[in-house]
Give the backbone structure.
Amino acid sequence: MKLITQALALLCVMSLTIISCSKDAKETAQQDEISPETLTKIYNHGFGTSDVQRTEDGYLVEGDIILTEEFLNGTPGGTLLRIANNEQYRTNNLVTGLPRSITVSISSQLPASYVAALDEALARYNAQNLVLTFSRVSSGAAINIIKGNGQFLASAGFPSGGNPYGQVKVNSRAIGNQPQSTVATILAHELGHCIGFRHTDYMDRSYSCGGATANEGASTIGAVLIPGTPSGPDSGSWMLACIGSGQNRPFNANDRTALGYLY
């Protein structure tokens, strides 16, 4: 999720890259470091191939999504869950063994105020009466929220082997002095990736990020329209690629439909 800088100093939140949405020489150099074979794998899995960054965990795509080598070497497949024209959620990598409780911990290297923000994020999920529930623990968690650094606000990945992605990196320095509700929205967004959700404006991230039309990836793995949801854009979704500074995005009606459909 990205907080984009505009009149109110919007930050990029989903890959959570701090963006101007323009490529400079440094960004181009980073792109050149990624082999054509790897970019092809990323594309075949249905992800965007612009501004791909190499990280210690694999590759950072679409601002805040980590794709591991193991994931890229797997066979592309599955379906996308679409809500409205701009909403798509990846469903081939989901948490299994339901009903299930997922534990989450948060590093002491992050600001102490983030504990309350995490509790708020977990409460948003638990209020939906899903077959997935969340609880905060001090150690031994299924998902560890740790301090991160780099050209992003936060990053996470998708489930593997039926388990949630085990790590969310949060760049508190880049996030800055955001209110608790905004930090809670960022954490809930990244946890959404950990359990298998994609950006709401997957087909055109310019919807929330501004700039030119940008399709994040190939729509080659199918889509399922959820009955009863609108056919137009959804401005309030917690999984939109970008979010404004100080903005709060609790689950809206369509988000709740998507969560209930999958879990």
